[in-house]
Amino acid sequence: MTAIALTIAGSDSGGGAGIQADLKTFSALGVYGASVITALTAQNTRAVTMVEPASAAMIAAQIAAVFDDLDIRAVKLGMLSGPEAIRTVAAGLTGRDLPLVLDPVMVAKSGDTLLPDAAIATLRAAMLPLAHLLTPNLPEAARLLDCAPAQDEAQMLEQGHALLALGPRAVLMKGGHAEGDTCTDLLIAASGTLRLTAPRRATRNTHGTGCTLSAAIAAGLAKGLELPEAVTQAHGYLQGAIAAADALAVGHGHGPVHHFHKVWPHG
Fold first, then answer.
1. Which residues pair with 33 in a beta bridge?
2. Between 225 and which of 38, 111, 188, 230 could a Cys-Cys bridge form, CB atoms 3.0 to 4.6 Å apart?
3. pTM of the full structure
4. Which CATH number fits domain 4-247: 3.40.50.300, 3.40.50.720, 3.40.1190.20, 3.30.420.40?
5. In the prediction, which pLDDT does 200 show?
């Protein structure tokens, strides 16, 4: 059986994040990728210049079409452009016995806002209880909890448990926005905590890291891996993609990671 994963997210015209990054990640990891586009964005490595949300009817129709024909094994959720899109996606996924990886995309690497404040409450109420895994970075976790970003691992753990109380089965607190030479992620579930570390690399080419990590986790789940193994393998894949990012030399701002670093490693 071909492992199939579905990404529900926004399109990145620059190719480094969103739907494009997710499909590249699925392919790099041997998983067939399907997609539901929630919004079009005009963006590159330097800025997001326009966002045009897809209609609720189009989002619902895409979800229905994909599930009507394809044997989806896991779903990755990315940019959900507003309350209506969030409610539509939640309705389309409710009742489906599938692992759902929710990456609460709020701000682009360029600093441009991708999720308005008015949608945060809807995301908390409608999507978090459906998620098998929530993958916030530190600013995203803070916005979901309406508090200051975590400053150390103890606060990351505390905020992870607070998010767990909102409904997801597990939370991956990502430490990429923290300080220090080592980047630490914490996978937090009722059964315990898994700590993953990696050296912090001196590169500005990190566009799409959050999308790529959550998509890689979904790919692992689509192949039947248990969550801790899927997260561990995805973490290693992303580190390789970041390490090879400078070889791509794409764009003049925050360039993308190298999704196919194992296929064409020298850019």
1. 5
2. 230
3. 0.95
4. 3.40.1190.20
5. 86
Q: pLDDT, tens digit, for every residue of 69-108? A: 999 999 999 999 899 999 999 999 999 989 999 999 887 6
Q: According to the model, what pLDDT value does residue 112 have?
A: 65
Distance CA(187)–CA(111), nearest Å, equals: 26
Partners of 199 in the β-ladder: 182
Q: Provide the Cα torsion 122, 123, 126, 132; round to 10°.
A: -170
pLDDT attached to residue 29: 98
- Report the catalytic residues: 174, 206, 208-211
149 phi and psi angles, rounded to 5 deg: -60, 145
Please choose, from the candidates 262, 215, 220, the residue with its C-alpha nearest in 3D space to the C-alpha of residue 241: 262
Check if the beta carbon of residue 56 is closer than 8 Å to that of residue 29: no
Q: Contact at 8 Å (CB) between 106 and 139? A: yes
Beta bridge partners of 219: none
Residues in the chain predicted with pLDDT less than 70, given as ranges, are 108-113, 177-178, 266-267
SS3 breakdown of the chain: % helix, strand, coil, rounded to 5? 40, 25, 40
Q: Which long-range contacts (CB under 8 A, 24 or more apart) does 25-30 make?
A: 25/211, 25/212, 25/215, 25/216, 25/219, 25/237, 25/259, 26/215, 26/218, 26/219, 27/259, 28/237, 28/259, 28/260, 28/262, 28/263, 29/216, 29/219, 29/220, 29/223, 29/237, 30/3, 30/219, 30/223
How far, in Å, are 30, 138, 217 from residue 144 at the CA level? 33, 10, 21
β-strands 4-12, 32-43 pairing: parallel
CB atoms closer than 10 angstroms to residue 41:
23
Local structure of residue 126 (DSSP, 8 states): I
